[in-house]
Amino acid sequence: MNLGKINKIPLNNITAYLAGVIIGDGNVSNASKSKKDKSKDYRITIEVTDLNFLINVEKLIKSIIKTKSTVTKRSKIKEKRKQLYYFQFRNKSFYYFLTKDLEIPAGKKSNIVFVPNKILKSNGLYPFFLAGVFDTDGGIRGKTPGFTSASKKLIDGLSFILNELKITHYLDSWVNKRYNQRYYGIKISVKDTDKFLNGLPSCNKEKLDKVLVHVDVPERSNGLEGLPI
């Protein structure tokens, strides 16, 4: 497969959002193409349960690069588990944008991933990156929105962004005894929940609908400002 030359991918609203999505629920391959072909596999995969959201992500990716890949239904699911959908594509330019420019780890990353330095230095991109992470890996913690991760560095980076956006929040950590794994979390303060949610340029209506069941936000915009969906 000829994946072409490396083109410079810009860091902007869309790519900051996609970086958050991939950090939350994506995987950047750290493998070779095959046992015989040891060249790098530029595979990137995003897997979620929200089909419409993943279709939106597909549109955003195709606004940046050319790919014939489409959203696919995962054929095998475990009993009592939600149906999964994935979008898998290969693109050398986007692969190197993620791994070189943003330093997102290839392969297993759950406990070592962090907010890219280029994101931290671009405060205008904070809401878009934050939305990408929340749309995939965020949710309700108690009765307020929040984040959970095995990576303390990621939580610390998200906390920095929230502080810069002047959104009050609380940090905590605990050990999952089943997996003997420490997890780290963020809870948005009740008083700033509306500020947090209304500031997210979200593309995941299913996630927002689930969150809004548990929180009291008087008005909520469609959240799509700044992203061409």
Description:
The chain has helices spanning 13-25, 51-62, 92-101, 117-120, 126-137, 152-164, 193-198, 205-212; strands at residues 26-28, 43-48, 72-73, 85-90, 138-141, 144-149, 169-176, 181-188. The chain has 229 residues and is α+β, with helices and mostly antiparallel strands. It folds into two domains: 13-109, Roll (Endonuclease I-creI), CATH 3.10.28.10; 120-212, Homing endonucleases (Endonuclease I-creI, Roll), CATH 3.10.28. Strand 5 and strand 6 form a beta hairpin. Helix 1 packs parallel to helix 5 (126-137). It is globular and about 55 Å long. The mean pLDDT is 91.
Task: Return the domain count.
Answer: 2
Instruction: State the share of residues found in helices, binned by percent.
Output: 25-40%
Question: Structural class, judged by helices and strands?
Answer: alpha+beta
What's the CATH topology name of the largest domain? Endonuclease I-creI
Q: Which band does the percent of strand residues land in?
A: 15-25%
> Could you list the spans in which at least 5 consecutive residues all have pLDDT below 50?
none
The average pLDDT value, as a whole number, equals: 91
Examine the secondary-structure arrangement and name the CATH architecture of the largest domain: Roll
Number of strands: 8
First-last Cα distance: 30 Å
Order of helices and strands: HEEHEEHHHEEHEEHH
Largest sheet: 4 strands, antiparallel
CATH superfamily of the largest domain: Homing endonucleases
Name the shape in a single word: globular
Query: Can you tell me the CATH class of the largest domain?
Result: Alpha Beta
Count up the helices: 8
Strand order of the largest sheet: 1-2-4-3
Rounded to an integer in angstroms, the radius of gyration calculated over CA atoms is: 18 Å
